[in-house]
Amino acid sequence: MRFENKWFNKFWKFSTSFQLGIPILVSIAILIAYGTIVESRYDAYAAKRIVYESWMMLVAMVLLIYNLTIVMVDRMPWQLKHYPFIFVHIGIIVIILGGFVTQKFGVDGSMSVPIAGKNNFVAMPQTDLVVYATFDGDRYSKMFEQEVDFFKKKPSLERPFRVSLNNNTIEVIDYVPYARLAKKVKPSLSSQAGSSVRFQLMNSNVKQVETITQVRKNKTNQFNFGPAQVFLGEVDRKTLGKNEIYLTPKNDESLTYSIFRKDQAKVFKTGTLKIGDVVDTGWMGMELRLLDYIPRATEEWDVTRSERPTPLTTAAIQIRRAGDLHWLVLNDILKIFGTSEAYLITYQNRRLDLGFPIALKGFKVSRYEGSMKAMAYESEVTVGVDDGVGGQAKSAVISMNEPLKHAGYTIYQASFQEDEVTKEPTASVFSINYDPGRWIKYFGSLIMSIGIVWLFYQKRKRRTAV
Fold this sequence. Notes:
This protein is 24% helix and 44% strand. By secondary structure, it is of the alpha+beta class.
């Protein structure tokens, strides 16, 4: 095409030339290579946020679509020999648009389902900050909810993320994308805070130190020690079958203990414990020693920064309120007490309702001989419910190489969770994928393939004619 305006003509000629096309392709190749490096150094989420969803990649793709479109328009009016060329260009554009639809409207999250339990919520990559408030300790009202992207917009002391709540202000002053965590317990001034105990269970074969902290006053917490369970709170023995120890706060210096044998409903031994005291439990030669006791305590995270992600790292934010600093871990809850109110703060992955439950009926794991390393694992699940109006539950087995497709979603077996002490599986972790742009990309690939085959056929026909 040619135009009367010489400047527009030069611009049009540049838009259809290799002077624009080649730099665009080189830029995309460099960005993809950079994304691969970022993914290998960090993880897929970092590569997605830093490279594939960046303004640089968006500009490169828009310029590529522009260049391909202008080149096609420049060939008008089209002749038969142009159609293979047109098909290839249209196919590439359709594939790019399909990728945009997937990025914008697709679902790529994870779901953890406990054994003999069910779940219908997918944890998405997007993160939300939610704040609840209570004035009586029982009823909570949502005060604030907002999507936050601390990965790209990192808060700092100079530029904190502020949440205004009536006469209070909560600030997010730091963000750690890869944090190694450890629990620490410190005394609390709140009258609603629970107690914390650090104890040791020991016999000739076992010597284990553990800490139990109540979430709040009168809220029982427990530790499962295989053949025994240790509870911190009021005595509430409901079933037989396990040896149990109940530690009940008495005053600021001591607790009462109640020991039950697994085959007896009545208490076997009771008494009072102070720091340093040792009690013979009466089974397997096991003794319990009270190492520390804090009558009013709060449990917080101790965060260590890591340069790269590992299976033990997670994201964390630091919160400041009235001069006090607290760490809040992704998908955890932080409780902050004020003078007459308390706040629950959550920093969590957004949850998406699938519209149907996934129930885990059974889980099997096979391990390499002589080790605890998992070799293969599979989940026996039931998806959906019998609603009486056409909807039926479906049973299936999801393994590492056999995903399940249901209601437009693809459910993959991703990993599993296990008990830290017994190493027995406790939950199955699935990867949930929904790709609304998949068929657009397939259609674009088909158009492009037809164009490529047509081009080869056209060239072969010309050679034969010569």
